[in-house]
Amino acid sequence: MNHLTMPKDFLWGSASAAYQIEGAHQLDGKGVSNWDEFVKIPGKTYQETTGEIAVDHYHRFKEDIALMAEMGLKTYRFSIAWTRIFPEGRGAVNQMGVDFYEAIIDECLKYNIEPMVTLYHWDLPQALEDAYGGWESPEAIADYVNYATYLFQAYKGKVKYWITINEQNIFTGFGWMTAMHPPGKFNEEKTYYQVNHHVFLAHAKAVIAFKEIMPEGKIGASFAYSPSYALDCRPINGMAKLDHDNLKSYWWMDVYAYGRYPRTAMRYLEKQGVAPTVTDEDKMILKAAAKLVDFMGVNYYQTAVVEYNPLDGVTPFGEFNTTGKKGTGQVTGLPGVYKNPSNPYLETTDWDWVIDPSGLRFACKEITSRYDLPIIISENGLGAFDKKTEDDQIHDDYRIAFINAHVKELMIAVDEGCEIWGYCTWSFTDLLSWLNGYQKRYGFVYVDRDEAGGSLNRYKKDSFYWYQEVIATDGATID
């Protein structure tokens, strides 16, 4: 390891999402999003937390970006709130919203930080939900493409890297299968797959439009990827892993990279009566976009173990740990196909997420072999209960150890032939964790904010200075 470093142009970065950091939820012409409404439902978030103030990045972005520059970040991945640009999702443009994000972009460029823009990080305009059911309707495709195309034109020449959709597998699964995200629907499996198809088409049409406007720009989607291991070498568990991967990973990545669905997964869904309706024109659009995609974005947090799940086995609807009480998460799966038991060989976070640095290298090598695409790690990080001392110190050695181990594996992956353009930690500052409130901290910068409020002052953690050295040496200081 001692001789390994990342290339000089490697994009050392950090990431965020508009709803989780900005606040200012009703200021300067911003419209109402589905998350603004969803969090009003009792019991949906930890201690009823909302993003109405979040960590007030809207008013403090210059302070935050100055800290990024001090750290030496090469890229900052952030999302744009659709409702700040089109308050009603379509129609009139809100110029104050356009100007706000241009100010963020310009501030990044001032410090030679490459802005990386995510077009959609889960906050759909509520007006579109009310008008036609949001992503359930194919009408959403045209509205999304109109929104995306407007931004491509607005920030052309300033933003090179674009991400169309963040974690499509997560927001659709939690939105239509487990009711944990908007629109809060439960076990609507056929709708879930049709919604995904609409999102795929929105992504594809946006990619095609992007390449007409910015042929030299770089665009892709960010997928929440959890590579899997078969429980053991019994064929029944090997087959379960294969089916799991087709239904839980390749269903999305194959569309992004090849423009087609995995054949056996589609056949399974057809037999279940829940397959999406896909026209010949749809297939042409998806294939055309796949030829234009520049990279595979990967949000990596953990791996999965797979074994066969009997017909009377566990369902997809087990309890999800949103409290940080280790051991409260339950095993889930698909009856008759697979389930995901815990991995006895790995430690977990307080939220029962498996800590597996080697899984990041596994993911990169698998993507390289299967798709031969460059990779951007668009999220990776550790959520933890950070504590600030009386003298304003935050000693997060556990976060340093976590990121160190993952970057080490990433460097080995590059040495083994993977083309990796960048690595964005989640996140730069602490922020609102969608379902977990403010207790689950991810940042290099501590924000004095909890469920009851706080000063919102920023404090650099030990990990801030550690990552600063990693960036300055292109990874030479990684243990």
UniProtKB/TrEMBL annotation:
<comment type="similarity">
    <text>Belongs to the glycosyl hydrolase 1 family.</text>
</comment>
<dbReference type="InterPro" id="IPR033132">
    <property type="entry name" value="GH_1_N_CS"/>
</dbReference>
<dbReference type="Pfam" id="PF00232">
    <property type="entry name" value="Glyco_hydro_1"/>
</dbReference>
<dbReference type="InterPro" id="IPR018120">
    <property type="entry name" value="Glyco_hydro_1_AS"/>
</dbReference>
<dbReference type="GO" id="GO:0008422">
    <property type="term" value="F:beta-glucosidase activity"/>
</dbReference>
<feature type="active site" description="Nucleophile">
    <location>
        <position position="379"/>
    </location>
</feature>
<dbReference type="InterPro" id="IPR017853">
    <property type="entry name" value="GH"/>
</dbReference>
<dbReference type="GO" id="GO:0016052">
    <property type="term" value="P:carbohydrate catabolic process"/>
</dbReference>
<dbReference type="InterPro" id="IPR001360">
    <property type="entry name" value="Glyco_hydro_1"/>
</dbReference>
<keyword id="KW-0326">Glycosidase</keyword>
<dbReference type="GO" id="GO:0005829">
    <property type="term" value="C:cytosol"/>
</dbReference>
<protein>
    <submittedName>
        <fullName>Glycosyl hydrolase</fullName>
    </submittedName>
</protein>
<keyword id="KW-0378">Hydrolase</keyword>
